[in-house]
User: Which sequence fits this backbone?
């Protein structure tokens, strides 16, 4: 059985511990049970088990709504988690209310990674936060952001004084 996620959100250290994955799968039975079911398992790789630092603005919003004890964060009870479909539905409703185009949660993950890359976040640390087995996955998937950084690096090189004739000489000032 799954541990409720209140035990995985550590307000003191400002972190979220990820050691499980939830998904809806086909229920391959011959009787008249539901067609799908929820399973909670270990993540697909050891690198997916990780501790994610939470920014202060998230922590300050979590503290007042967090339930004490062993409760799932989104439901506030210890015996019921929120269905992935329900969470996706609520997310889509918020997007619709804000007049934002339809996205899924995985798109937010890619957006987060892209923005981190664009702002110069360390690739190795970002890769660990995302739970990638290798930093190469980050390089492969966030190609457009890396291309932008490569262009920025090339522009930066243009400002190296030894390569420019219009910069004053460091020794003479001319």
Assistant:
């Amino acid at each position: 059985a799954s541990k409720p996620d209140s035990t995985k959100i550590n307000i003191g250290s400002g972190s979220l511990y990820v050691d499980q994955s939830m998904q809806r799968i086909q229920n391959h039975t011959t009787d008249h049970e539901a067609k799908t079911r929820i399973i909670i398992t270990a993540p697909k790789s050891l690198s997916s088990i990780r501790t994610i630092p939470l920014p202060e603005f998230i922590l300050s919003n979590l503290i007042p709504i967090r339930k004490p004890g062993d409760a799932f964060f989104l439901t506030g009870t210890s015996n019921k988690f929120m269905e992935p479909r329900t969470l996706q539905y609520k997310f889509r409703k918020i997007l619709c209310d804000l007049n934002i185009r339809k996205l899924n949660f995985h798109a937010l993950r890619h957006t987060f990674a892209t923005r981190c890359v664009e702002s110069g976040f360390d690739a190795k640390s970002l890769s660990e936060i995302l739970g990638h087995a290798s930093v190469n996955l980050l390089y492969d998937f966030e190609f457009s952001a890396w291309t932008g950084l490569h262009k920025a690096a090339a522009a930066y090189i243009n400002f190296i004084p030894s390569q420019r004739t219009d910069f004053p000489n460091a020794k003479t000032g001319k």
